[in-house]
Amino acid sequence: xxxxxxxxxxxxxxxxxxxxxxxxxxxxxxxxxxxxxxxxxxxxxxxxxxxxxxxxxxxxxxxxxxxxxxxxxxxxxxxxxxxxxxxxxxxxxxxxxxxxxxxxxxxxxxxxxxxxxx
Amino acid sequence: xxxxxxxxxxxxxxxxxxxxxxxxxxxxxxxxxxxxxxxxxxxxxxxxxxxxxxxxxxxxxxxxxxxxxxxxxxxxxxxxxxxxxxxxxxxxxxxxxxxxxxxxxxxxxxxxxxxxxxxxxxxxxxxxxxxxxxxxxxxxxxxxxxxxxxxxxxxxxxxxxxxxxxxxxxxxxxxxxxxxxxxxxxxxxxxxxxxxxxxxxxxxxxxxxxxxxx
Lengths: 118, 214
Hints:
Chain A is mainly alpha-helical. Chain A has helices at residues 39-46, 56-69, 75-81, 93-111; strands at residues 2-5, 8-11, 25-26. Chain A is globular and about 40 Å long.
């Protein structure tokens, strides 16, 4: 499972608590305020980017990091960016679509005129 | 959304919200009062005779509640159920208990289980079990395993083939004969179907609770 510590996407299973000392840590639970969804979460739901959901927190947090660095990734860049996150049931096609959907949503939100959006 | 509207249309799954917000629970999240953990010792060989098993150190390991070998389950646990026993299976071929007895017949065949207070103890104790194996030639190719002289998993049956299905093709043969007689072409094709083994999605572990009096 992934989380981001100080803006870097890391695997929580390979980071000791002491290594995260003093870091700001965001996990899937904190990606969006309670009762709402982050566009990436929406994308995974909308595009059927998950089945059992076991890999989903890692996929979403890795996507979060990817889109922060590269808001408009190509399919290849998405696949490269999520490399190392293994999905055993859905396959990666819809995960890529989910990230593309999220990227689109986030770009639209970012370019919306002031006052028109949230 | 009515059923008709769902056909051919993407349908948002109702179970997704908890899965995309980190609220889902998996076997690892199940914590029952007094829950014990099991570790399985598995065969490192595809085929081997078990000469002896020494589980004393594991049984004595602090935190271990029980260690079971095949002999401990005799009379208490029956064989693994087979949905449709056919041919030699009805005579006992391939019928086995949950733990290997006398022989292991595949890589990963369960040999012993350790029940302990926590998963780490269970695994540590499992590593203390000593098994004396005598490796045997293994049949690792299905078709070679069907040939005479192949290493036998169940020697007493003299074959690795528990049953075969050869439905009559008499009527079909006639059609082909006629086709050829009429100057048509018959195309031969060897078709291999993959084996399907449906199983739960979280296969590495399971949790269970024995109800009171159960």
